[in-house]
Structures are given as C-alpha cells and as structure tokens.
Amino acid sequence: MNRPRAVYLDFDGVVMDSMDLKLDAYCHALSDYGFAREALREIQLASAGLSRHQVLPLMVESLAGKALSDSEFKKVLQRFHEKDEALRPQMRPKPGAMEFLRCARDRGLPLSVVTGTPQEVIDATVRHFDLGRFFQKVCGTPGSKSGYLRRLPHESGISPGEAVYVGDAVLDEAAAQDAGMPFIGLDNGDHPFREQSQILIIERLSDLIPVFRLVAAPS
Questions:
Q1: Are strands 6-9 and 111-118 parallel, antiparallel or unpaired?
Q2: C-alpha span between 81 and 26 (Å, rounded)
Q3: CB 27 within 8 A of CB 83
Q4: What percent of the chain has pLDDT above 70?
Q5: Residue 109 has pLDDT above 90, yes or no
Q6: Model confidence pLDDT, tens digit, residues 193-212
Q7: What is the dihedral of CA 119, 89, 169, 145, to 10 degrees?
Q8: pTM for this structure?
Q9: Chain centroid to CA 70: how far?
Q10: Measured on CA atoms in the order 148, 154, 156, 160, is the torsion positive or negative?
Q11: DSSP assignment of 88-139
Q12: For the chain, what is the radius of gyration of the CA atoms?
C-alpha cells in the first residue's frame, strides 16, 4: 500500500480502549429494562460505528420489541451520558495507538478523527487525554462518517482515494466505500469484517507504521 496523504481514524476501539466502558454505560442507561449484559454487547458489536442516539433505541426495540417514547429516550440518553462522562478517566489508549500517533506526527502524516460519538463528547475526551496535538480535525455527530470522509479530503486539496479510513466495524467499512475511500479494518478480536472484503486487517494502529513506511530510514 502506498503511503496515504491523510489518515482518518475512528476513535472508540481504534484509538481508545473504551468499548467495554461504553457497554457499562449502555447497561447503566437501560438498567430498568432488565436486559442481559451479553445481549446488549451483541447489539453493541453489531451496531458499532453508530451514535448512541441510534444504538439506544435499537437495543430497546430489538430486546423489548417496542419503540422508546420521547420521554423514555431522553431518560436513557441522559443516563448513558452521565455514566459515560463518569467513566471517561478510566479510558486508556489502545496498545500501539500512541506509538502510531507519535510516529505519524513526526513523519508529517496528517491525521483526523471521524467518529459516531457526539461532537461535544469527543471534544471533551480529546481534551482530557491531550490528544488534540495529533489531529488536524476531530469530527463527531451529528455529521455522518461518510459525509466527513467525502468532505475532509477536498478541504485538504486531495481526493478521497488518496486518503484512508481506519475503523473497527463493518459500518466503518461501508462509510469508507460510500465516500470512495480505501479502508483498513482494525480487528479487536470479534472478527467483524466479511471474509470476502478485500481490505487490510490489522490488530493495532502501530501495525501501520511499516505499511505506511513511517519508520525513519537507516542512516
């Protein structure tokens, strides 16, 4: 693979090891419904890449067979937000993530975040962990991933085909395909990507250092 001119990264499960903490927040938000943690986890994995605004109603509809009312949705969304905020200090970078971020910065490879997390939440998380120094832009919802992946390259004077998106879910792959952008899948052990997908699959971001030839040439 040629070195891209820009790399866009999903956040949860790619940069930060936060998926179990997000599941804790889903369990807390929906504790009144009596759903099993494993049942929520299955939906979390299947819907990875979607916003909490989409996942919470999906969980209730899938497991309880009913739609959330407006008042119920506001309640569970607030409970999720409160728990998610409380758990933020427990988040940690994924193994290999900081190594890749530092190497990309030092080698002049532009990075941005494109995530389904609400904008104000991802901004707060990036500030909390002092990650803003690594990213040109941090993009969350309500914008769509495919929309950002179409728009951001053109703002930098390149085509989507000259960039790459790294995500950990089939919905991330679909967003990249919709934008006409190459995709790299990060497998966290749940093997989400279709066998027929012609994509590069990695286990950690640092796997991309030799792929993108970011290692300094020997003197």
A1: parallel
A2: 9
A3: no
A4: 97
A5: yes
A6: 877 677 899 999 999 999 99
A7: 10
A8: 0.92
A9: 27
A10: positive
A11: GGG-EEPTTHHHHHHHHHHTT--EEEEEEEEHHHHHHHHHHTT-GGG-SEEE
A12: 18
